From TrEMBL:
Enzyme Commission code: 2.1.1.-
Subcellular location: Cytoplasm
Similarity-based family: Belongs to the methyltransferase superfamily. PrmA family.
Alphabetic keyword roster: Cytoplasm, Methyltransferase, Ribonucleoprotein, Ribosomal protein, S-adenosyl-L-methionine, Transferase
Highest taxon listed in the record's lineage: Bacteria
InterPro entries attached to this UniProt entry: Ribosomal_L11_MeTrfase_PrmA, Ribosomal_PrmA_MeTrfase, SAM-dependent_MTases_sf
Protein name: Ribosomal protein L11 methyltransferase
Gene Ontology MF annotations: protein-lysine N-methyltransferase activity
A GO-annotated cellular component: cytoplasm
Binding positions (S-adenosyl-L-methionine): T159, G180, D202, N253
Source organism phylogeny: Bacteria, Bacillati, Bacillota, Clostridia, Lachnospirales
């Protein structure tokens, strides 16, 4: 099959947020090329000791993504340009030139797998479905994961922030709503931590297969979870299907600009006393402030803020 390859020039400062934006508007699989050296923690997490020599970081990052030939590429590129223009108001997004080329049979669905190896979040071992559990790890809580083309290997700091918060609040009675479930990792971990039931929603249809497969591989029964595709922010049918005043925990690891409108909707899905765990908020005071303000406006009390790397997680209570 022939693919259109796009190479977007941006900055290392903006690469995370621009990648998230590309995924949020429906582009699946973004490759990041930059010269930022890996930190010791990155190396440990990736289980690599020896890295190839790289040039000095020049602050430039290239984001590569692919669209099938028949996809409406002009429409999609227009969306990308509009989002970049908006982002330019608060982050240095660089040149934003987009080079286009064509390529045959790119295995972009699988290429990333060479960089995803087992790692731990505290005492939870998260392991790709194609790796073996070592004897020394057999007594850990083990999560097998293959996100496919959906987001959510667990390696991302935003996911880890959510995992730790979910663990604090789960009880055997917990009904959790995982908005933007991607691979299903948050709902799945909540169930592993002892929650009763999980409902996931996402815009990305790939989230359905990814979640079902991951739940099955991890031995979670089909009556413990559901996945729904649609935008809960403005789709009344999805809001009705998800249900009202029903959840003890709502987790949403999505960008701040999505969390703000989401908050005033999701508050109706939560039981009185329920917690709302948000992440995906880039660590600048403006985004954190906006999410907190949205929570307060919706009648939630902000109870905790946690940080990891460049990201923030804010937890509120109804
Ligand atoms: C950063 S990923 C999080 C995936 C996973 N929950 C995790 O924590 O690793 C954000 C996900 O939110 C989804 N998303 C974005 N806007 C959404 C919306 N309005 N409703 C539901 N899902 C949304 C994206 O498709 C993507 O799968």
């Amino acid at each position: 099959m022939r693919w259109n390859k796009f190479r977007l020039k941006t900055t290392t400062e903006a690469e995370d947020i621009v990648s998230s934006m590309l995924m949020d508007i429906g582009i699946q699989g973004v490759e990041v090329e930059d010269k930022v050296p890996l930190t010791q923690a990155d190396k440990e997490q990736m289980f690599v000791d020896i890295l190839p020599e790289t040039d000095v970081d020049d602050g430039v990052a290239y984001l590569n993504f692919y669209l099938e030939e028949e996809e409406e590429k002009e429409k999609m590129l227009e969306k990308v340009r509009t989002e970049l223009k908006e982002m330019a108001a608060y982050v240095d997004v660089g040149d934003c030139t987009i080079e286009e080329s064509q390529t045959e049979d790119v295995d972009w669905v699988n290429n990333w797998k060479q960089y995803f190896h087992q790692f731990t979040v505290d005492d939870v071992l998260i392991i790709p479905s194609w790796e073996e559990v070592e004897q020394k790890d057999k007594d850990k809580m083990i999560i097998h994961i293959d996100p496919g083309t959906a987001f959510g290997t667990g390696m991302h700091e935003t996911t880890q922030l959510c995992i730790r918060q979910i663990r604090k609040f789960v009880t055997p009675e917990t009904e959790i709503l995982d908005v933007g479930c991607g691979s299903g990792i948050l709902g799945m971990l909540a169930l592993k931590f002892g929650a009763k039931h999980s409902v996931g929603t996402d815009l990305d249809p790939c989230a359905i297969d990814a979640t079902y497969e991951n739940m099955e591989v991890n031995g979670i029964a089909k009556d413990q979870y559901e996945v729904m595709i649609g935008n809960i922010i403005d789709d009344k049918a999805i809001q009705d299907k998800v249900g009202y005043e029903k959840y003890d925990i709502v987790a949403a690891n999505i960008l701040a600009d999505v969390l703000v409108p989401l908050t005033q909707v999701i508050v109706h899905q939560m039981k009185q006393g329920a917690v709302y765990i948000t992440s995906g908020i880039i660590n600048d005071s403006d985004k954190e402030f906006k999410v907190k303000k949205a929570m307060e406006t919706a009648g939630l009390e902000v109870i905790e803020t946690t940080y990891q790397g460049e990201w923030v997680s804010v937890t509120g209570r109804k």
